[in-house]
Structure formats: C-alpha cells, structure tokens
Amino acid sequence: MYSIGDLSRRTGVKIPTIRYYEQMGLIEAPERSEGNQRRYEKRELERLAFIRHARDLGLSIEAIRDLLALSEHPERPCGEADRIATEHLASVREKIARLRKLESELERIVACHGDHTIGDCYVIRALADHSMCESEH
Amino acid sequence: MYSIGDLSRRTGVKIPTIRYYEQMGLIEAPERSEGNQRRYEKRELERLAFIRHARDLGLSIEAIRDLLALSEHPERPCGEADRIATEHLASVREKIARLRKLESELERIVACHGDHTIGDCYVIRALADHSMCESEH
DNA sequence: GTAAACACTCCAGCGACTATAGATATGAGG
DNA sequence: CCTCATATCTATAGTCGCTGGAGTGTTTAC
Asked: What are the tens digits of pLDDT across the range A100-127?
C-alpha cells in the first residue's frame, strides 16, 4: 500500500498532479484509509508510471486516456495504438519544423550585437517590419 | 481612423485578442467614438503589427512589453533588446533539442506497425516501461 | 427608416497543471 | 498515551495567451 506521497516519490509525478489525473479519469479513485487518505496498490503505481512516461513524450491527456483504455484489452489489434503514436510523431515533427523557421529568423535578427542604440537596432526594426523576414512564419 | 475590425483585418489579430492586449497593457486604450467604440490611429496599427510579429516568433507577452518599452527610447543602447532576442533564441533551440529527442524515441516506438494485438504492441509496452528508452527525456 | 454588420462589456472555458488556505490524519519519539 | 512534525484532505483560484458566447448597443449602406 502506498500513500499519495509514496506514489509521487516513486513516479516523479507531483501530488496535486496525481489528484488531477484522478479527477480527469486517468486513474481510478483508490481505496481510502480510515482517515480518508488515498491508499494505492502496485497496479496504480504502474499505471501512473505509464502516464508519466507518455506525458514526458508529449502525449495529451486525451491520447493517454485512449491508450490506457486500449491497454485494458490485450487481445484486440493494436492498430489504434499505433495510429495515436504515429499522429503524435507527426505533430512533433511539425513543431520541430516550425521552430526551425523561428530559429533561423531569430538568428538573423540577433545578428545585431547590442553595440548601438534602439533607434537603429535590428531587433526592433525587424520586429516592426515583417517584410524584412526571409520566410513566412 | 480605424475601427477595431479594420485593425483586426489589417494585422490578422482577432478582435478579442486586440481587446486582450489592451487589457494586458501592450497597447493603450484608444479614443472612443460617440457610441463608445474604439477608434485607432496609424501608430496603433503599427504597434499591433509589431506585437503580432513578435508573437509569431514566439516571444512572450512579457518580453514584448519590454521590447515595446525599449522602442520608446531610440537613443538608448540596444543591449537589452539584443539580450531578450538572444535569450528567446536560446529557448527556441532548447525546445528543438527536446523535441528531437522525443521524435527519435517516438520513431522507435511506432516501429510496431499495427499488425498485431495490444498484448504485444510495442507502443504500449514501451510506454509502460521507461527502461526500454534509449535516452533520458 | 430600416436592416445588416459591427462593436460593446462581462464572463467562462481551454490544457495541464500549480499553489494556497484551512482543516484533519498519520507515525515516530518520549 | 501524548505530542508534534509531517503528510494529506478538500475546495478554490491562478497560470498563459487567448477564444467564444450572451445579451445589448452603434454604425453604415441602401
């Protein structure tokens, strides 16, 4: 039996976050002690570790809920799980592409090295005038 | 004189967002018509375009507020503006690095191609067991 | 003069937590 | 058994940067 603090230490998920996950339906409401404190089994520890890992990988609560529901049915085909992960990979790749554009635009903008005044600062001028940009963003 | 709708069309910033920026102190409360509607000058159009551009580049409201304050003093040195942009570039680079790790982890995970069952699905097993990962994330 | 289009304020909601306040429970040492 | 530090409880509000809706009033084009 673990207290919520034990669970938190073992998974690295903060206590209020665990309660939040319970509210969001990612973990079931556990048994309670006589004094109304949450008491968890190993099962729930594992489930929380799964959630933590998926969140670290950037999956949404919604996606995790779906994956957890799938994992309750080991006999079913795993196409859906694969689809969720693949879609998430695509969205990660989009974010990377977008950030790379920002990176190169910012690189150009900060080429001004702070050795003059605001009046002719490239940072400020570039922000004021979108047409100074190389690409759309 | 522009109405809030004109401003919105010309900058691509949605109307509620313009009002939100006013609330946040990024743009001043403009004059009003007899019927209490906002009426803007060209100055405010340019200021909003600046904000839009900076937001597109991912700068926070806070950072934009600072940059706008700096741009009011063209005679001052621009080291601070440079610092803000440089710091932001660094944070963009961090995000990219992090997403790249996620990308490669997800690539490994989705290598399972949905042609079997949940019970032996790599996606589910990898999420349940962090030690299957190549690197920290 | 009328109707469509536009704008006003206020407030709630998004996602995924995080923090606070004030009350109660638990567990270890004396 | 008692005390006390620590842990936990609930409920609520705040974070960021918007976005949407309800209900009402204004402007403009015909």
From this structure: 988 988 888 887 665 677 777 777 878 8
Q: Nearest CA to B59 among A55, A105, A58?
A: A105
Closest-CA residue in chain B for A91?
A: B103
- Amino acid identity of residue B76, one-letter, is R
For residue B33, the enclosing domain spans 4-76
In chain B, whose CA is at the least distance from the CA of A67?
B124
> Tens digits of per-residue pLDDT, A18-76?
999 999 999 999 999 999 999 999 999 999 999 999 999 889 999 999 999 998 888 88
Strand partners, A38: A32
Does residue B49 belong to any structural domain of this protein? yes
Residue A31's H or E segment, with its range, is: strand A31-32
Domain match, A41 and A24 both: yes
Of A83, A61, A6, A71, the C-alpha closest to A38 is A6
Specify if B24 maps to a domain.
yes
Q: Which residue is nearest to nucleotide C8 (CA to C1')?
A: B37
Cα-flanking dihedrals φ and ψ of residue B69, to 5°?
-60, -40
Residues B92 and B117 placed together within one structural domain of the fold: yes
